[in-house]
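A note from the maintainers: we've had questions about how concatenated examples are separated. There is no special marker in the raw files; a new sequence line simply starts the next protein. For clarity in this README we add a label.
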Amino acid sequence: MRIRQDGARRQQGQQRERKIMHRTLRLFVPASMLVVLVGLLAQPAQAAVWSSSAQWGTWTNSGFTLYNNIWGGGAGPQTIWANSASNWGVWANHPNTGGVKSYPNVSRNVNRRISALTTATSSFNVTVPGGGAYATAYDIWCDGHTYEIMLWMNKTGPVGPLGSRQTTATVGGHSWDIYRGSNGSNQVFSFVSRGNANSGTVNIKAILTWLRTSNWFGDVTLGDVQFGYEITSSSGGMDFRTNSYSLSTS
């Protein structure tokens, strides 16, 4: 009986020693490792050169401007981050209610008439959530804010363009369902891709020329070309990432 009691005490002592050693190891984790661990826990998206959670947060880089642009009613928190105009993203937690909440985007002003524009092309590569309600879209403005041309590259959830469907066309490197309407302030032409695309190249000049030859507008001036995410809902927090982006005009 004594031998068993001594053995039990030895096992209890060894367990206490192991617990003390574990506590000691936890206390003496190198500071550099703690910083890394805290950083990993604190970053829902990724480390970036710039980030902002402000409603109208902006950052200019290489002639482009990044906008957080939380403009819709009932919006939740949203943080935009960027390493450059071609590598940026957003984390958004907007409630599952109707109405567009935000349009975080990258923008550049071209300021050239269609007739004076030789080329206008853009390429993109994005990683987007499988849930929520949103569209990955270009928002292109002509003659100030007289005309708005939206190019919906992909869409998820109960979202749709303004106006009524007019026709279908293959132009600018993609096949579209084309809608026309007004938001009360300007004419809106929406080109909705007939197949969701998370990467590709768009010939913007060809689309503007199609609108001109269709007599939907004249020799207008191309102003801001924006690309981003029109988010209606992203409940629980979702990541939208622009892996690469470019805009070339001449």
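[label: protein 2]
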Amino acid sequence: MPAKPSVLFVCVHNAGRSQMAAGWLRHLAGDAVEVRSAGSAPAETVNPAAVEAMREVGIDITDQTPKLLEYATAEASDVIVTMGCGDTCPVFPGKRYEDWKLDDPAGKGVESVRPIRDEIRTRVEKLLSDLRSAI
């Protein structure tokens, strides 16, 4: 693992789960980790309920936009965390992969997104702990 690892969070629309995960990792790791997120079929905007749920914990993701998953981005990442993107996620030898089974916040209100946000925080904290141990 390099001194500054790169983590890519991938979900289908890059509008909810992956954006919240990237927001948590940026918040918790600061500049120690390069944080990326993308989607196999990106939405036009980030899910408003995800934005509100993150705002409630002091994390602003309003400046983020859904991005298309590109081969080069995945190839340049040390850790790839998938969240329901299925077979569209590229696989590269030597990469660390995690597949997080999480409810999709699409179409849900902020009340339903809060538990997803909190589960993502727990997983991001564990990932960050693992990354720090590997450096």
